[in-house]
Design brief:
The structure is a homodimer. Chain A has ten helices and 16 strands. By secondary structure, chain A is of the alpha/beta class. Chain A has two domains: 154 residues, Medium-chain alcohol dehydrogenases, catalytic domain (Quinone Oxidoreductase, Chain A, domain 1); 129 residues, Rossmann fold (3-Layer(aba) Sandwich), CATH 3.40.50.720. In chain A, the strands form three sheets. In chain A, strands 3, 5, 6, 7, 8, 15 and 16 form a seven-stranded mixed β-sheet that branches. In chain A, α3 packs across α4. At the A-B interface, loops of A face loops of B.
Amino acid sequence: MRALSQQTFGAPDVLRVVDVPRPTPLPSEVLVRVHAAGINPIDAAVRSGHFPLLGEPPFVLGWDLSGVVEEVVPGVTRFEVGDEVFGMPFFPRAGGTHAEYVAVPSRQLARKPRALGHEQAAALPLAGLTAWQSLVDAADLQPGQRVLIHAAGGGVGHLAVQIAKARGAHVTATAGAAKHDFVRALGADEVVDHRTEDFTETARDLDVVLDTVGGPVGRRSIGVLRPGGLLVTVVDRTDTALRAAVLDAGRRFAGITVEPDHVGLEALAALADAGRLRPHVEHAIPLADGAKAHELIESNATRGKIVLTV
Amino acid sequence: MRALSQQTFGAPDVLRVVDVPRPTPLPSEVLVRVHAAGINPIDAAVRSGHFPLLGEPPFVLGWDLSGVVEEVVPGVTRFEVGDEVFGMPFFPRAGGTHAEYVAVPSRQLARKPRALGHEQAAALPLAGLTAWQSLVDAADLQPGQRVLIHAAGGGVGHLAVQIAKARGAHVTATAGAAKHDFVRALGADEVVDHRTEDFTETARDLDVVLDTVGGPVGRRSIGVLRPGGLLVTVVDRTDTALRAAVLDAGRRFAGITVEPDHVGLEALAALADAGRLRPHVEHAIPLADGAKAHELIESNATRGKIVLTV
């Protein structure tokens, strides 16, 4: 089968479409024909060697997928051949969705939302689970609560805005001016231009801040939280000084790493089918042009998501 | 750390306690100090080479665990250091719980039921999830339905009886005479001695049969199901002739392989804490005597479960 692979760490041009053996699903798993696969900042970090999560190359990147069940190992009852599914297999122990086929544990998949095509559904697992596990599992966001979402036009951010609105929260969003119309259309109640405005002047007494940016953004967000409010960061999880500063200020801190879980996938699918969650795919790029997709993800300029089509 | 390992396939005496590096949990995972770990028939099948699920030795077997969180990788919010947990990590891609420490994805763990000690909790994950995923996820067992559970005194069977009773079902059980009192005490409504009685003469019009034995038992069970009733086998998943015979008879067929899933663990823990589910640990054996535990599991004579203490 075709897969996007690399022999060395390096710039996007290390990526090559190669022919590799089709994976063999084990008991409890299914084989999925990948139709589309999201690309995320972590793919670029692993590719470059900045975050060598998968050890030394060669390896195939990719954790998002949307596709069709090609083979069911006897013993799996959740899916049948031909079912449309989406999911995030094996994160972070192995990648592999930037390929024609991938073997996936059944409980790391859910049924693809009917309301979404494969390209949109492939944009949902890693970024959507990150947002869901931040706002729902960790923050337990409630109707009427006030949340600030940083980089609300990005992959995680644009899904987080929609999830927060679906939960009945009041959403303040930061984004560059070029993305303001986009973020408003997602449902954000207030949009702040982080380049020209100071969000600490407009936002205050918030219940939750979701930081998808990192660096000074987290520290500056402490003051906009109400006492007991929660800073959720999906970036600076290991920043013990930030954590201490948050706790010293009487606020709460949660660092989040996304985790495979069919429960979150099913919740995202239900929201999508209810018309409350629609991933925005800015670029759908053929697998053979994977290097271009990596260049785009590193530019940080994309609204929403980039997916590879397979 | 100490781990029960093997250098070659073979009889139980290939097992040795060796010193191996403590595993390193990745993002989304925690390190657990194992207090007790279940042993299951699949451990013996992998050890002997009969079912080489983990490739060639050396490897450390074991999927059940109950223990205490020793280390939390930043990014995980579901657990804190010191939490008592139980679970079934990495099945079937890697083993490793027959050891002092194991790295576990957070969503393949749940909080240990308060009502159970570590030895009892370690008896629950693989066998309990097998029973839960068979009777609840696959069969959707309803109050008042009639179910037959084969080998009801065994590891999966004795938990299945309790789960079925907790669901409000009527339970017929097969077991050898020596286990009848045990199985009755679990709540079984009728107990059939499979050695001296013919279960097809006493059981009929059943909604569900759970086959944990395999071979002729499944085929003989078809006739005791009502039209549309479900044969669930956790053994003969790949027996296409059995499947065809079931479907030809107008009954339904489900082969089950257990799958890691915190949802089932949480359900099992809730039942245990409600006093509705109590794993029976027949033997608790120190890790150093792992070979003896393997001999016992191969004897098939145990009531309930065998666990290793670490």
